[in-house]
Amino acid sequence: MVPQDEVAAIVGQVERTASFPTVDELNRFIDDMVAAHPDRVAVEEIGRSRGGDPLREVRIGTGPRHLVVLGNPHPNEPIGMATIRHLIGRLARDEADTLGATWHFVPCVDPDGTRLNEGWFARPLTRTSVARGYYRPAGDEQPEWCFPITWRGAPVGVPMPETRALMALIDRTKPALIASLHNADFGGGFFYCSGGDAGYWSALGRLLDDAGVPRFLGEPDAPGAARWAEGVFELPAFEKMADALTAVGVDPVATIGGGGSRDYAAPYGTAVLVSELPLWVDERIGDKTVSDRSIGSVVRSSAASYREIAALVAQVLERLGDRLTGRSPFERALRAVPASLSEMAVEKEAASGQDRLATRGEIFMEEYVWTGMLRLRTGGLLLRLLDAEAERDPSPVVAAEKARVATVFDGWSADIERNAPGEPVPLAALITIQAGSIVTAAARLRDGLPV
Description:
48% helix
């Protein structure tokens, strides 16, 4: 076991932080660190985003094991950028322990998408304010989910420029670990791991407990993932996820897109750690009191809600018709939503045959962790599209659709803010958990323990 005090000493005290760093702020911080510590910190441009932003690798340490840390692979999940900023600051110190490794930080994997989210990075946040500034690209525009692999004899995944930069980094470093930093809007915290043992999973769970963040006890969103401990799940390879989706009649290529960093790095024996942390928590997610509703009826209700959201998006896109050009990132993201939500509904329905009684926590998660999140995200994205279209080409059609969607969104928002606003988690606590998980994995690799 890696001593907890060693992990805490390397992570250090995280200063109270009021907001997430923007792309430009993070780049300025990196430049300042290179200038202040030229013997310990190096930066290299490893590629360019589709929008022309530099993709930067920050390198610290000289050890034989290589550790790759990825920030913001999904641009609406900025905790990782704050975590990387903190870890660079800690490891750059002259007396810092780099755990016998060379660290390779990619502070922002998707700067184009991140810039479209920066309007909500400053706190205080509400679930509604985040939704109104939300952007997440369609699957085939997510750098971490379009690695090229072969599945059932056919090529899968068309890599973006950002993905190609990560591929080159992985091939160059042959990393012992890839830590991919994610977050959710609401719920509990959890981790995906490619391996490890009970001691590793227990250490990860304790990081959540020590920070007062409840462990997510629901089903993982990665198809086919096994539960290894409370709040810790298996990170399946593409093939296992694809088999699970195929078994319920869902096209895995259309749903997932391509391989992940785990699939691409597999020939190097790379361990992968994914942290999923919430911006808000609610103790009701852990309520194990048995209700009077069957779990089957609960998930069928979720499936019906998913289809309603999908229908709303399809109707708006149809009514806007030829006014849409395909150039808007909001439009491209929304084009993928009806099929994606319909497939998610199919997955829910495949699990609806269970007749056991649901716990109150399971009901709460279905209604407010999953359905509530999807309503807010989709509604917010629709309004961003309509805002942009109204500015570009004002018309009665656009105005009417904006008013109609705003009414629906306001109803969804009022429900969330009344029944599940959540308790905000201090950003410093989220950074502490994420940084602690990475350092825990790195220390175990140093000690020859499974990760």
